[in-house]
Amino acid sequence: MLATKFRSRNGPPNASSLNHGNMAHLMQSEKNTLLSVRDLSVEFHTARGVVKAVNSVSLDIKAGERLAIVGESGSGKSIMSMSLLQLVQYPGRITSGSAMLEGTDLLALKGKKLRAVRGSKVTMIFQDPMTSLNPVLRVSEQLIAPMRRHLHLGQREAKERGLKLLAQVGIPDAEGNFNNYPHELSGGMRQRVLIAMAMACSPRLLIADEPTTALDVTIQAQIIELLAKVSKEEGSSVLFVTHDMGLVARFADRVAVMYGGRIIESGPTDQMFENPHHPYTRGLLESIPSITGERPERLSQIEGTPPDLAFLPKGCSFADRCPLSDEVCIETQPASLTVASDHTAACHHSDVVASLGERRLFDAEN
Ligand SMILES: Nc1ncnc2c1ncn2[C@@H]1O[C@H](COP(=O)(O)OP(=O)(O)O)[C@@H](O)[C@H]1O
Ligand SMILES: [Mg+2]
Fold first, then answer.
1. Angstrom distance (rounded) from CA 202 to CA 291
2. pLDDT class of 19 with cuts at 50, 70, 90
3. What is the per-residue pLDDT for 355?
4. Alpha-carbon gap, residue 266 to 258, rounded angstroms
5. Which of 316, 344, 321, 319 is CA-nearest to residue 332?
6. Whose CA is nearest to atom 24 of ligand 1?
7. What is the mean pLDDT of the chain?
8. Which of 365, 361, 363 is nearest to 276 (CA)?
9. Is 60 helix (H, G, I), strand (E, B) or coil?
């Protein structure tokens, strides 16, 4: 059963937080919001037509919160996160939306102001550590540069903080490794250097796009734990992109599921694992091995492929893969509705999904 498979860390919300506490809770959460993304859309104009990679996405991240963005390959996770720093390359274009961070719209920044935010207030770690490091510069130079530029530290102060950061991210012999070139380090060590660089200016928000995919499994877990530890120490929020639900369960406070360029469900991690309201989220959960490792279970499989973003259907983009789909789903795109406190889902049959309990929605493999 899902609820035991992904055991709750905090238990169900108590009655008071759902009833009379609701208004106070809302005001509190608004006050703590660090990033507020509204109606963000990104399009690619291609020979095949207009590819709607990100389709009217809205999300919030609170101060100090870790939000995981999940979804299979091609669902728009990378383009959405890159667009927050205006890093989407031509022919990609942000066609609508805002991303307010402490009173500044990240999507409206230009020139010097944009560069000042990138690398200091909001930083990003990419999937492949080798392409993100400059091969001809020593680790020391790459680590020190953002602190000199953004924090205006002197050479000696920057070096001191650099060594401290390397120790903080678990690099042994920080002094020795400080002067190495990237190719002299292992993949895991390079990813640690990138985390140190991303944390150098104590960013308000760290965006990490599948930061562990290139690493082997034991190192992956270490890197994620490290990200959690360092972001907590520095008080940074984290937007974490992954397709690994196991990592989500261990790392994230909240989860947003992307499908076909939209966020189709989002909520607190516990609620999302125990009581998913969208069939796609349910399918993702049914298709992972038991996180608690209690016993091997039969895994479900979501048949079919994600939609072509150049030819999105008029109704629900998951309809052709969904065991619950009917005429309404094919005709009408479901709106994103609040299904529980701080929990939204865009599905015409979310109540059916929520009442599945131990029953499977998708067929098991073999
Ligand atoms: N350079 C490009 N030209 C055209 N379409 C693109 C380009 N880059 C990305 N896309 C489209 O954006 C979609 C989302 O890509 P991406 O954000 O990288 O997915 P994810 O990170 O979830 O795997 C892709 O499925 C593709 O259709
Ligand atoms: Mg990606």
1. 32
2. very low
3. 96
4. 9
5. 316
6. 74
7. 87
8. 361
9. strand
In 3D, which of 342, 366, 277, 254 has the Cα closest to residue 2?
Answer: 277
Place of tokens 């608690």: 292
Q: What b/e string do you get for 245-269 counting C-beta neighbours within 10 Å, with b at 16 or more?
A: bbbbbebbbbbbbbbbbbbbbbbbb
Ligand 1 centroid to residue 228 C-alpha, Å: 28
Ligand 1 atom 17 nearest Cα: 76
Decide if domain 2-11+32-121+203-354 falls under CATH 2.40.50.100: no
* Residues 173-215 pLDDT 10s: 899 999 999 999 988 889 889 989 999 999 999 999 988 877 7
Could you count the other beta carbons within 10 Å of the beta carbon of residue 119?
Answer: 19
Count the helix, strand and coil residues of the chain and give each as a percent rounded to the nearest 5.
40, 20, 40
Cα 353 from Cα 341, distance rounded (Å): 17
How far apart are the CA of 80 and the centre of ligand 2, in A? Answer: 9
Each residue's pLDDT tens digit, 98-153: 999 999 999 999 999 999 999 889 999 987 766 788 999 999 999 999 899 999 99
- Burial of 340 by CB count in 10 Å (0-12 exposed, 13-18 middle, 19+ buried)? middle
pLDDT of residue 307: 94
Cα 349 from Cα 264, distance rounded (Å):
13
Which residues of the chain does CATH 3.40.50.300 include?
Answer: 2-11+32-121+203-354
d(CA 199, CA 167): 13
End-to-end CA distance of the chain: 19
Whether 263 shows a pLDDT value over 50: the answer reads yes
- pLDDT tens per residue across span 36-64: 999 999 999 999 999 999 999 999 999 99
Q: Which ligand is nearest to the CA of 211?
A: 2
pTM (global) more than 0.85: yes
Q: Is 306 in the pocket of ligand 1 (CB under 6 A)?
A: no
Question: For residue 19, what are its two tokens?
Answer: 């009833």
What does DSSP assign to residue 14? P
pLDDT at 17: 37
Cα 352 to middle of ligand 1, angstroms: 32
Bigger pLDDT: 28 vs 41: 41
